[in-house]
Write a structure and sequence with these properties.
globular; 203 residues; alpha/beta; 6 helices
Length: 203
């Protein structure tokens, strides 16, 4: 009798884990589809509040790979760098040529690189100014941008970029554990909720 109870307990736990895993995958698939819809509908700014930055970036890369779009990632440490997503070779080469051209115009002695950041983009204000001039269709992930939202210049730049990005498939994605958006940006923003990790990921 004891053996049977243990057997059914094990089977029950295993079924519960599989059920949680399936639910998590379904929720992530839903988030992925919503993100693709937001990008395709020219949503200028998408806010993702989460402490799981890598998970959020992975979702963005997957969406952009499905949409054949380039991904750029910005951080205060590295500036704006093209991500290693599955972008078609010709498009990726074209983007890197533009990056190198911008760097060369600013500094003729700067070497060309396949992984170099866009010149002069570590400063968040300058990074947004550069984004405002870009016309290529791409998604730009700005990491930990909540640290800069108390600057009126940043808010103004975000508004300018958002208004220009709404004209075609260009999207800014802001990732942060928590971020308070000013009322000036309300009409330009959509929020994307990243599903909570399942019980197995929390253990």
């Amino acid at each position: 009798m004891e053996y049977r109870l243990n057997y059914f307990t094990v089977v029950s736990c295993d079924w519960s884990n599989q059920s949680n895993q399936t639910t998590d995958q379904t929720h992530m698939a839903d988030a992925l589809e919503r993100l693709k819809i937001l990008i395709n509908s020219s949503t200028p700014i998408v806010v993702m509040e989460t402490v799981e930055e890598m998970r959020a970036v992975s979702l963005v890369r997957t969406a952009c790979a499905d949409l054949n779009m380039a991904v750029f990632e910005w951080s205060i440490a590295d500036g704006l760098v093209r991500s290693g997503s599955n972008v078609p070779g010709i498009l990726g080469a074209d983007l890197q040529m533009r990056i190198n051209a911008a760097r060369h115009a600013a500094n003729p002695d700067a070497p060309e690189s396949g992984k170099a950041a866009v010149y002069n983009t570590q400063d968040p204000v300058q990074a947004l100014a550069n984004l405002e001039t870009m016309t290529l269709e791409a998604v730009f992930v700005l990491k930990d941008f909540h640290r800069h939202m108390d600057s009126p210049v940043i808010v103004r730049r975000l508004r300018d970029v958002g208004q220009k990005f709404s004209a075609n498939r260009r999207t800014l994605i802001l990732t942060a554990p928590s971020i308070a958006m000013p009322p000036e940006l309300t009409s330009l923003i959509e929020y994307l909720e990243l599903p909570l990790p399942n019980q197995q990921r929390l253990l």
